[in-house]
Specification:
Strand content: 15-25%
Number of domains: 1
CATH class: Alpha Beta
CATH topology: Rossmann fold
CATH architecture: 3-Layer(aba) Sandwich
Radius of gyration: 18 Å
InterPro entries: AAA_dom, DNA_Partitioning_ATPase, P-loop_NTPase
Pfam family, one: AAA_31
Number of helices: 12
Shape: globular
Largest sheet: 8 strands, mixed
Protein name: Sporulation initiation inhibitor protein Soj
Organism: Pontiella sulfatireligans
């Protein structure tokens, strides 16, 4: 099996993206998949959420500039089968430094290509920053597929339409393999009609692209990062841990070796707006 690069991306913050990056990666590792998580968010929440310090020079930043071999930045997390390239606040400077380069949208691709080609990892998970900047676009330029975490709110559809348009643009501009492999509904509250209605609306537009697994609002999920652990280590029997284990299982089950990305057209911003 060749290494698959999966970007967890949404231009909107507060959707459970980093929570998903930590726990989805940990659950894939639990299923004996070799995983590398690359924290591309200068806030470094995925880094601290796995118990690592935010150390100067530890992020992918010097590799983006061509000053460091990316493989030297890989750290063990203490979780079997899960490694990480941490982030740090200085990674925010990459937006300016890389912008001066001619190949500024290919810097991440050049940096991690040797790691991908080594086939050491089954999956490389990219925790993207919550903004449409250069790091975000670099991630989509190297990714094979995108998982979009989406909170159960009415305003979610508009943001989702923007993400679909961006993925289409990146694919047409030079990354033809890029596709949306799944939309993950997060912060689901089983006791409210609102959550159920939002899920139904997203499924109406995007069909089986929406994961059947729903990530609930769960206190244990919120607490786990402060202890530097994925929820499967912090409280392995809570509903949050069960949800992310189900997500990993569903993700693996969905995969078909050598399958071509679906050519089915997804809704655009304009088509979603017209349907409202």
């Amino acid at each position: 099996m060749k290494t698959t690069v999966v970007a967890l991306a949404n231009q909107k913050g507060g959707v459970g993206k980093t929570t998903t990056a930590i726990n989805f990666s940990a659950c894939l590792a639990e299923k004996r998949k070799k995983v590398l998580l690359i924290d591309l968010d200068p806030q470094a929440n995925a880094t601290s959420g796995l118990g690592l310090e935010k150390g100067f020079g530890a992020s992918v930043f010097p590799a983006l500039l061509g000053e460091t071999d990316c493989s030297t930045l890989i750290k063990e997390t203490g979780i079997k089968n899960l490694d990480i390239i941490p982030s740090e606040l200085d990674l925010a400077g990459a937006e300016i430094a890389i912008a001066r380069m001619d190949d500024y949208l290919q810097r991440l691709k050049l940096a991690i290509a040797p790691v991908i080609e080594s086939d050491v990892y089954d999956y490389i998970i990219l925790d993207c920053p919550p903004s449409l900047g250069i790091l975000f676009m670099n991630a989509l330029n190297i990714a094979d597929e995108v998982i979009i975490p989406l909170q159960c709110e009415y305003l979610a559809l508009e943001g989702l339409g923007v993400m679909v348009d961006i993925v289409n643009q990146i694919r047409d501009a030079g990354n033809p393999k890029l596709h949306i492999s799944g939309i993950l509904m997060t912060m689901y509250n089983v006791s409210t009609n609102l959550s159920q209605q939002v899920v139904q609306e997203v499924v109406k537009h995007f069909g089986d692209r929406v994961f059947e697994t729903l990530i609930p609002r769960n206190v244990r999920l919120s607490e786990a990062p402060s202890y530097g652990k994925p929820v499967t280590d912090y409280d392995p029997h809570c509903v949050g841990a069960a949800a992310y284990r189900n997500l990993a299982k569903e993700f693996i089950k969905r995969r078909k070796p050598d399958a071509e990305p679906s050519a089915e057209a997804l809704p655009t911003v304009s088509s979603i707006t017209a349907a409202e």
